[in-house]
UniProtKB/TrEMBL annotation:
Residues in the signal sequence: none
Coiled coil residues, start to end: 71-98
Name this polypeptide is given: histidine kinase
UniProt-listed Gene3D superfamilies: 1.20.5.1930, Histidine kinase-like ATPase, C-terminal domain, PAS domain
Domain Single Cache: 89-180
Any matching Pfam family: HATPase_c
Keyword Signal: no
Documented EC number(s): 2.7.13.3
Length: 514
């Protein structure tokens, strides 16, 4: 067996080397023009290991969900802040409008005694009214202005260069009409207008909101305005504060996300290290079990060869030497010695066949699982004297090779355990196919065992081997202690059942299933 394993290993290594040589690209010469034209540098793409896939699977949903939450929070924060800022701006502007109305009402009350009794062509009354309005200034930048409906300025106390000049068509630096719009509003009775205008206190342009009414008898537009640059600064400061708050929120979310990712990474690293240690421990145990199984099998084969074949061959040798001496001396017993030698050689041949059948029965490959189990049970009954019964039912499909080998080895291991430990007198083995797959059921009337003792003090190696074989097939193994005896239920799933042959022959029983 050692020489066979070494030959198999050499064959596997030779096959792998051949595959590597077959797939190795043929190098081109550096002087080849084709090589110079098609020369490329291959950049290896990092392979995603199981640990990396697990880390990505844990972190990507977290990062995407946190990013979505951050975007939603930012959007909601900006929307709410814009709504609050708009409400604040509207409140401030509403207060400014009310303030302008109060100023203009005060101015109108001041000129009522002059304006009300005066006819449209009373120039003296108009002069007195302009003087009254020109004197009514307030604050650093507050004043009243008057334009005739044709655009001529009559009152501008903060900028006297405007007086007596026609400003029809005047626009600010942004192209917004000023005088024409004020006159239009005055003709309609009054209204508000916003535009850019030089601020008297600084000389720089600032946003101004004006309120104007019309003196229809005199064809005048009288109004006043306030600069709302302080309002715009307040709104800009509020928006900046909102952006700063959103930025801080993003920073907090990013910090929490990084902490969570780091925690996931550290947790994954810890779990990976722990699982690797457990896997290494299991691998060591599995390796040791493989070595133990190999040594046990080698020891069994060695005992079989030494106690069986070796003894028989020694007996054959002595019988042949005796026959040779008898032939030389002319002893009439020589033919009997030769017959005994031939009989012993037949026994040796039978022993070799039995050992070969135990290692890998040829009937399993040639005739299928059913005949192999039948041969196994008959040999077991003959050798041990334990009454053994095999039952099969009609089975339309066929088992694949892995399932056949696994179920046969489970039956072999079960019979070995029954022979060594159960003390049973009867064994029943049933093999049947069904909609979910195929099941092998083995029952005995022995003394049974306690499942809790499996695995203690090195016990239960055969049961673990059976369980691992079924696990590789995605099947199930159920061991149930009974009174008396034990039942073993091994079931392989439907995927290990091959489709029935299309030869038109009647369905074969499971006993002949391959």
């Amino acid at each position: 067996m050692t020489a066979s394993c070494e030959i198999s290993q050499l064959s596997f290594n030779l096959t792998r080397k051949t595959a590597q040589l077959t797939h190795r690209p043929v190098p081109l010469s550096c002087d080849s023009p084709h090589h110079q034209r098609t020369r490329k540098i291959a950049v290896p793409f990092p392979e995603l290991t199981y640990a990396r896939k697990l880390f990505l699977l844990a972190t990507l949903p977290l990062i995407l969900s946190v990013a979505a939450i951050a975007l939603v929070v930012a959007h909601q924060s900006r929307t709410m802040a814009e709504r609050e800022i708009a409400e604040l701006e509207e409140q401030i502007l509403s207060a400014k409008r009310q303030e302008l109305q109060n100023y203009l009402q005060l101015a109108r009350n001041s000129i009522t005694t002059e304006y009300s009794p005066a006819p449209p062509d009373d120039e003296e009354a108009k002069l007195r009214v302009t003087q009254i309005l020109a004197a009514m200034t307030y604050g650093q930048d507050g004043y009243f202005f008057v334009y005739t409906y044709d655009g001529t300025n009559l009152v501008a106390p903060r900028d006297t260069r405007l007086i007596t000049r026609n400003w029809a068509g005047l626009t600010d630096s942004a192209g917004t009409p000023i005088v024409d719009e004020l006159i239009r509003l005055a003709r309609q009775g009054g209204g508000y207008h916003s535009y850019l205008w030089p601020k008297p206190s600084t000389g720089e342009e600032a946003q101004m909101m004006s309120y104007v009414i019309g003196l229809q008898d005199w064809q005048w537009a009288i109004g006043t305005g306030v600069f709302i640059d302080d309002v715009l600064r307040s709104v800009a400061a509020a928006r900046a504060e909102v952006e700063d708050r959103v930025t801080r929120t993003f920073g907090y979310i990013g910090t929490i996300t990084m902490a969570a990712v780091l925690l996931v990474f550290l947790s994954g690293l810890t779990i990976t290290i722990r699982e690797r240690r457990l896997a290494d421990g299991k691998l060591k145990k599995l390796t040791q079990r493989i070595f133990d199984t190999q040594e046990e099998e080698r020891g069994r084969v060695a005992r079989e060869l030494h106690d069986g074949i070796s003894q028989i061959l020694v007996g054959v040798r002595y019988a042949l030497e005796l026959a040779r001496r008898q032939l030389k001396s002319g002893d009439p017993k020589a033919p009997a010695s030769l017959d005994r030698s031939v009989e012993m050689l037949g026994g040796a041949i039978g022993e070799v066949r039995r050992i070969s059948r135990d290692l890998r029965p040829g009937i399993l490959d040639d005739l299928g699982l059913g005949p192999a189990l039948k041969s196994l049970t008959e040999e077991f009954e003959t050798r041990t004297g334990i009454r053994t019964e095999l039952e099969t039912v009609v089975f339309r499909n066929r088992l694949d090779e892995e399932a056949r080998i696994a179920l046969f080895r489970i039956a072999q291991e079960a019979l070995t355990n029954i022979e060594r430990h159960a003390g049973a007198t009867e064994v029943t083995m049933k093999l049947a196919g069904h909609r979910k797959g195929a099941t092998l059921l083995i029952c005995d009337n022995g003394r049974g065992f306690d499942p809790a003792d499996v695995g203690k003090r090195g016990r239960g190696l055969g049961l673990r081997n059976m369980a691992e074989r079924m696990e590789q097939l995605d099947g199930s193994l159920t061991i149930t202690p009974r009174h008396p005896g034990t039942s073993i239920d091994a079931t392989v799933p439907l995927k290990h059942i091959l489709p029935p042959a299309t030869s038109g022959r009647p369905p074969a029983p499971i006993g002949s299933a391959r």
